[in-house]
Design goal:
Layout (H helix, E strand, L loop, with lengths): L11 H5 L4 H20 L11 H22 L6 H27 L21 H5 L9 H4 L18 H16 L3 H22 L7 H6 L2 H33 L4 H28 L7 H21 L6 H31 L13 H13 L3 H10 L4 H4 L4 H8 L6 H21 L5 H20 L3 H5 L1 H28 L18 H22 L7 H26 L9 H4 L4 H8 L12
Helix pairs in contact: 2-3, 2-4, 3-4, 4-7, 4-8, 7-8, 8-10, 8-11, 10-11, 10-12, 11-13, 12-13, 13-18, 14-18, 14-19, 17-18, 18-19, 19-21, 21-22, 21-23, 23-25
Family: Belongs to the EXO70 family.
Protein name: Exocyst subunit Exo70 family protein
Keywords: Exocytosis, Protein transport, Transport
């Protein structure tokens, strides 16, 4: 429906007959009839509900009255006609103001969050740290551990909040009110009505005023939920709620730049500041490792909204909101970097003293590696944050890091890669200390072997590989082989040292001139070494199948040929009989079976 302004009452008629007092009275009568007729109608009948011609006549009556007053102002201001015209104008303006208010009220539906987007925030209560923390088993589920999906709208939604017919009437009313000096009333009614709509919309989105103190005291589970709601609400608020209010201001106050800007500022400034205030409180809250992913979510959300805010809040009175948002974005970035530093500090200070049974993978290892994997969900953001805060690692990192960097960090392709490698260094230092909790040196080496192998496997099977670098992986593989060699030396040197003819003197009663007594002692030592290995390996763990097979093959290649040779050479010195079993307790086949049952929970059974 488009409005057409009728010219059935053209004030030029008056101008054409300045001396016709009767004609002037007639025009005033016509205007008063039109204005009074509208006042006698029911309150539910508004201009935009009328047919176009009738609505146009009503607005034209106001235009004609204004022109009559302009004409009369050149005459005697105190004339009865001027007084009558001013009274009629007040009536007309009051009616238009009421019409303006009614139209706004009839089109004041707030944003419905359930219909604003095809997607809603995930309700799974995802907390990365709950997935990162170890419960004794791996969690490699990408779907469960990926960070929260980027929800809601991705661009500004050009949605008209009020039907175009109603907007046209509002704009025509503004033109009349503005041209007759009633602009202030118009702005007051518009801002109060639309601000209430915005407040209701933000309330339905869960946007509330939260102080830093409240955020500081809030339990993480509750804060985590509020942050997820904020991420969703921020996109809807900026790209839909405030965007449509700006569009409505531009449509209704077309041609009145100052009114347009002042209305939008009055409507949007306080609610926007409240929306940003929550992000500011989170950025300034206590830093702990579990918060980093939500802080990065907020950082990415606000960063993506900055271009939209620059477009929406382009008026000079709103520039402070742009500056506030930019400042909060900076503080969120600083918070993320600070949390990462806190994570590193907590890793250095973690000092649990309970050794993991069987030398298995420590929960701390799973925690740290999964933490690093989740960080790469934000790779681009973190790379930018690291670039914004260049770090002289040799100067700022703890003592001993410079040497580690020279030896282990040549493969790093970025500051982020160096940072992640440094976290692994801290983990390895911590694990090295925990390895000393084991009384058995072989088990200590096996513990380090298991944990480093876990780190390498996780890095190789993820995007961490490209960040950490091939050189890093190569040197970690060398270290892995060193741990394996250390385990083999500690676990099997005693047995291997028995499988030589050194210390077996010639002479005695044996047919070969070899001391029979020495052979008995040697085979007793061999049996004892095997028994000791069997008992010590009971319950030892190598969860990774490939690593377990490699260890078994390596041990077998070193041990079985030597034992087979020794057994074949000296075992024949014993006559077959009941006493021979005392010394020839383990055949090469039995020993080989024992070796290939290591780390499977069956090593304690006699081979």
């Amino acid at each position: 429906m488009s409005l057409r302004i009728s010219n059935s009452m053209n004030p030029t008629m008056v101008e054409g007959d300045n001396n016709s007092q009767a004609n002037m009275e007639e025009n005033l009568d016509i205007v008063e009839m039109s204005i009074s007729k509208r006042d006698t109608q029911t309150a539910s009948t508004m201009l935009f509900e009328c047919n176009p011609e009738e609505a146009g006549q009503d607005l034209a009556a106001v235009d004609n009255l204004q022109q009559l007053m302009e004409y009369l102002s050149g005459q005697d201001d105190g004339s009865a006609k001027m007084i009558r015209a001013e009274r009629l104008m007040k009536m007309a303006m009051a009616r238009l103001r009421n019409e303006f208010h009614k139209i706004l009220l009839c089109n004041s539906d707030p944003v419905d969050p359930d219909r604003s987007s095809s997607t809603r925030p995930s309700s799974d209560g995802l907390s990365r740290l709950s997935s990162i923390s170890d419960n004794g088993a791996d969690d490699d589920s990408g779907s469960e551990m990926s960070h929260a999906p980027r929800q809601s709208i991705d661009t500004i939604c050009e949605i008209d909040t009020i039907p175009s017919d109603a907007v046209a009437v509002l704009r025509n009313i503004v033109q009349r009110l503005g041209s007759t000096g009633y602009a202030g009333e118009c702005v007051r009614v518009f801002t109060s009505t639309r601000k209430a709509v915005v407040e209701e919309s933000l309330c339905s989105l869960g946007v509330q005023k939260v102080s830093l103190q409240n955020v500081h005291k809030m339990q993480w589970a509750l804060l985590d939920k509020k942050i997820k709601k904020w991420i969703y609400a921020a996109k809807i608020s900026i790209r839909l709620v405030f965007a449509r209010e700006k569009r409505l201001c531009e449509q209704v106050f077309e041609g009145f730049a100052h009114m347009k800007d002042s209305c939008f500022v009055e409507i949007a400034k306080e609610p926007t500041a409240r929306l940003l205030g929550f992000a500011e409180a989170v950025a300034a809250s206590t830093r702990s490792p579990e918060k980093i992913f939500r802080v990065l979510d907020m950082y990415e959300t606000l960063a993506s909204l900055m271009p939209d805010m620059e477009h929406i809040y382009c008026q000079e009175p709103c520039r402070s909101l742009q500056a506030q948002a930019a400042g909060i974005l900076t503080r969120l970035g600083e918070a993320a970097r600070g949390i990462l530093t806190e994570f590193e500090d907590s890793l250095e200070k973690e000092n649990s003293k309970t050794p993991i049974q069987g030398g298995a993978i420590h929960p701390l290892t799973r925690y740290v590696v999964n933490y690093l994997g989740f960080l790469l969900d934000y790779k681009e953001t973190l790379v930018n944050l690291m670039a914004d805060m260049p770090v002289d690692l040799r100067k700022d990192m703890p003592k001993g890091f410079a040497l580690a960097m020279d030896e282990d960090f040549n493969g790093a392709s970025s500051l982020l890669g160096i940072r992640l490698q440094w976290i692994v260094v801290l983990l390895q230092r911590n694990l090295d200390g925990k390895s000393k909790l084991y009384k058995d040196l072989a088990l200590s080496c096996l513990f380090l072997l298991n944990n480093l192998n876990y780190v390498i496997e996780k890095v190789q099977g993820s995007e961490l590989k490209s960040v950490m670098g091939k050189e890093w992986l190569r040197k970690q593989s060398i270290k892995l082989r060193q741990y394996a060699a250390g385990y083999e030396r500690a676990a099997w040197t005693k047995l291997l040292s028995c499988l030589t003819d050194e210390g077996i003197p010639v002479g005695g009663s044996s047919s070969g001139g070899i001391s029979h007594q020495a052979l008995k002692q040697r085979f007793k030592a061999i049996n004892s070494a095997i028994e000791e290995a069997r008992k010590s390996h009971a319950g030892w763990v190598v969860a990774d199948e490939r690593l377990r097979e490699e260890l078994e093959i390596s041990i077998s290649e070193k041990l079985i040929p030597a034992y087979r040779s020794f057994f074949g050479t000296f075992g024949r010195q014993f006559e077959i009989g009941k006493n021979s079993y005392t010394y020839l307790k383990y055949t090469p086949e039995k020993l080989e079976k024992f070796v290939f049952h290591l780390f499977k929970g069956s090593a304690s059974a006699p081979p």
